[in-house]
Structure formats: C-alpha cells, structure tokens
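Before a colleague's protein record goes any further, I have to sign it off. What it holds is a sequence and that sequence's fold in token form. Would you go through it and say whether the fold makes sense for this chain? The record follows directly below this note.
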Amino acid sequence: MTANWKRAMERLGLALGAAAVGTAGLAAAAAYPTMGPLAPYLMDRDAEVALARSAAPPAISNDATIMVLGRGGYETAARGKNGFVCLVERGWMSPFDSTDFWNPKLRGPVCYNPPAARSLMPRTAKRTALALAGQSKEGMLAALKTAVAKKELAAPETGAMSYMMSRQQYLGDAGGHWMPHLMFHVPTADAANWGANLPGSPVILDTDHARGPEPETIFMVGAGKWSDGTPYVHDEAHSH
C-alpha cells in the first residue's frame, strides 16, 4: 500500500461523515428538498445497461442480470447466469439525512453478489416503489420502519457483498465519483470486530447507512483500480 493510498483511505474515511457538511452540503439540501419530475431520474436504456455493468469487472458483470429503472420501478434488461445483479441506484438509496437523497444526478452503479441480490434487492424495490409513488422522505422512512418491524425486509445473508467500481459513478455533489470500492453487507455489527475506521486500516464502516432503518451494517474496502482496469488516483475523489 503506497503512502498516497494510505493518505487517501484516511482522508476518504473521514469524508464519509463529512461530505455533506459545509457550503456544498447546505446548497445541496436547498437544491433537492423533495423529489422532482421523474424524467431527470431516468436514463437511456442502453446507457443505463452499460453503466450498471461498469460497477464490476467484466468477468463478473458480463454474466450478471442487469436491472434498469423504468417508470414503474426496476425492470430486467438482461438475464444473467452467475447470480449477480447489477443496477444503477438513485439518490433515494442514500441515507435519509443525505443532502443528495433527491438529487436527480446521483448515479450509483452497483453489482450485488448472489447472497446480496437475494436479501437486499427487496430493499431496493421497496425504496424505489415508495419514491415513485410520490412518498415524502418522512413517509418513506416510516414505511420502511414498518416493513422492518413486520420482517418484510431481512438482514443481509451470510456472504453478502457488492462491487462499486465504476469510474462513471456519481455519488453526490460533494464527493463526485469518490473511489472504487467493495461493500460487505452484514447484520448489525460492531466496527471493532472488523478493525474498521482505525488509523491505517483499509476497512471503513459506513456510519451514514448505519443510521438507516434497514437491519444491516456496511463495511467498505477501497480498490486500487476501477472496473475497467485503470488505476485509481486519489485526486480523482472530488472530480465530477
């Protein structure tokens, strides 16, 4: 691990909790107080398929099922054969206190492995259905809490993980495309068990999502390359 990479990991770990703070965060909060018209959240179908596949290396995403967002929710654009599911998340998959929750520019390409697809896709479908039905952020949060209480949304299966390695990802106005990373989805867990967020540790606890209603904890590990094989350079973290 190079000195630059270590510094990037430490800086970006802190950025998770601080990205929405300051002028940019306040501007975003004012800019996206509610969901706007649906059209800006949608994409050209072929472009969305390509963006979804870019979440993981081609050896994984070429054989994955690809979902794209339509006016009625996510639809299957291509059926895969390896059990992975790739899609492009929108802002409403963010933490509820995120200033980019309704940001129509947010694009989060992600590829879920089979355990994650089975256990986490219902969460994606639920949040998306609520957003497209015109629910407010407060209404969505209440509905998700009810769904969790009724055990309609389960904790992640053992071995659930996902890839977010797209160079084209746009994760918010403050952070741009951030960095290529892997996410490990587990039931509620203590950061100490993973050595997360400690100086020099490559494991980051996603403290933002930990405040959400779904019964999961997300640990992230940065990757040295984007899914297309090009090296990640830490100065790219805030380029848009």
